[in-house]
Amino acid sequence: MDQAHELFEKLQSLKNSEEFLEYCTQILGGVERIHVDFKEKRDRKNSKLEDDDKKNLARAVSGFANSGGGVLVWGLEDETLKAKPITNIQQFMQNLLQLAPQITDPVAGKIDGNWIISNTETGEGFGILLIPESELPPHRVLLNFEGIKNHYFMRSGSSFIVASHTMLEDMFGRRPKPNLALSVKVNHTGNRGKFQDFTVILGIENKGRGSAKSPFLDISVKLPYTISSYGVDGNRHFGLPILSGVNNMSHQRYGSSQTIVIHPGITHDITAINFDLDISKLGTQPELVVIYQIAAEGINLISGQETINVSEIPSKFNLLY
Questions:
Q1: To 10 degrees, what angle do helices 51-66 and 89-99 make?
Q2: Residue 215's pLDDT band (boundaries 50, 70, 90)?
Q3: Among residues 83, 37, 70, 35, which one has the least CA distance to residue 56?
Q4: Full-model pTM
Q5: Other CB atoms within 10 Å distance of the CB of residue 314
Q6: Which residue segments constitute the domains of the chain, with CATH numbers given?
Q7: Which pLDDT score is estimated for 168?
């Protein structure tokens, strides 16, 4: 959990307005306000959003979404942290949450809010608005107000500033990227009495938020294990074309052009290793060690090793005598 979410959860957990104000003034007031900002409402007797409220919201949504996320606390004076509770705080927060998704391009997602009541008769209280770090920065303000329209904001210390050209270049460079890992799946493929046949399917899993273009996989194994020449389906179909340069039973490379893309959350099966086990002699079979390298367009080469204890496989398929 990042700092913005942690702060939001902490503020929500405070039992009453007294604890809330003490935490804001004694704890948050003495730290650098990178992930928190305080705002008082223009007309705190009215839950309607005034122009100043909308401007403050727009700067915060753009600024926090573009730079690490944060919590916007409503009902405290920014400089002194003097309490300025807002009448009908529940309705005010609902108005904020309704406007927030319409305030930037692209939309800053997963904004959440809550409130702390200080006076049950008037509904007065304080608001907390969570603005997470964006997965798709930068976010431009859409509201038609002089000084903020079409600007991209960043959090700098305890202020929101208009992003410079260099900052924008950096934000555009933070578009979601793929996070690639080796996928290993074991299938039981044959029953010959005490001899059982198994296939290990190897592929690339994309755990990231961006798509992986032109994926690449390099696989090496040691005897007695070999890379199957029959592909992932037994009919010589591989998930990626076999590349030239290396072509033997213990070392193989696979790659593609931009026509193959592994999207977020997808596992792309590529190749297989076939072997059999004498389940009456478990414990004598050596471990299957897969040495691999993975890459894709714009991603540095990922190297690793996966070790499979094949003697434990039969128990997972209820094949023990």
A1: 60
A2: very high
A3: 37
A4: 0.58
A5: 17
A6: 3-172 (3.30.950.30), 180-316 (2.60.40.10)
A7: 85
CA-derived radius of gyration, the chain: 28
Q: Are 49 and 56 spatial neighbours (Cβ–Cβ below 8 Å)? A: no
Q: Which of 291, 221, 218 is nearest to 250 (CA)?
A: 221
Q: How confident is the model at residue 176 (pLDDT cuts 50, 70, 90)?
A: confident
Q: Residue 219 burial by CB count (10 A; 0-12/13-18/19+): exposed, middle or buried?
A: buried
Mean pLDDT on 57-61: 97
pLDDT score, position 182: 96
Among 149, 133, 126, which residue's Cα sits nearest to residue 55?
149
Could you tell me the two tokens for 231?
A: 């592909």
Q: Residue 94 corresponds to which tokens in the numbers above? A: 């609902």
Please name which of 305, 278, 161, 123 lies closest in space to residue 222, comparing C-alpha atoms.
305
pLDDT tens string 230-249: 989 888 899 999 987 776 88
Closest CA to 210 of 300, 302, 298, 270: 298
> How long a stretch of residues is the chain?
321
Question: According to the model, what pLDDT value does residue 313 have?
Answer: 85
Given the structure tokens 């903020």, which residue do they identify?
A: 148
